[in-house]
TrEMBL record:
SUPFAM superfamilies: Ribosomal protein S20. It comes from the Eukaryota. GO terms for biological process: translation. Belongs to the bacterial ribosomal protein bS20 family. GO terms for cellular component: small ribosomal subunit. Gene3D superfamilies: Ribosomal protein S20. GO terms for molecular function: small ribosomal subunit rRNA binding; structural constituent of ribosome. Keywords: Ribonucleoprotein, Ribosomal protein, RNA-binding, rRNA-binding. This is Ribosomal protein S20.
């Protein structure tokens, strides 16, 4: 009887050690996965901020271009100097979109669609 009790006690101690070790390893894995998820979320936030910046700047440029085109359309005698300002705005918008394509913030097709 005493041998059986000792055997059961040693088995219980063994399984306790095994389960606590597995539990600690699982907790460590969860902590590592949590850190990995946090870094992925932070990277996604930065990417979304960059996409938002590109979108808002390109939209702002296009609104400025459209406003200046409306002014030119209403004028009967437009000077070439007024057209140069519009061309500069278009060039700035193209450069913002091209930089976003090169960095990888925008997809290639999205950039060409916005430029068209």
């Amino acid at each position: 009887m005493l041998v059986q009790e000792l055997l059961l006690e040693s088995l219980a101690t063994y399984w306790y050690v095994v389960f606590t070790t597995i539990g600690l390893e699982y907790v460590n894995l969860l902590a590592q996965r949590q850190e990995q998820l946090i870094t992925e979320i932070v990277a996604a936030i930065f990417e979304l901020r960059a996409i938002h910046y590109v979108f808002t700047t390109s939209v702002t440029y296009w609104y400025q271009v459209l406003e200046q085109l409306d002014v030119l359309r209403k004028k009967t005698d437009a000077q070439p100097e007024e057209v140069i300002g519009i061309e500069k705005l278009i060039a700035e918008a193209y450069s913002v979109i091209d930089k976003a394509n090169q960095v990888g913030t925008l997809h290639r097709n999205t950039g060409t669609r916005r430029k068209s």
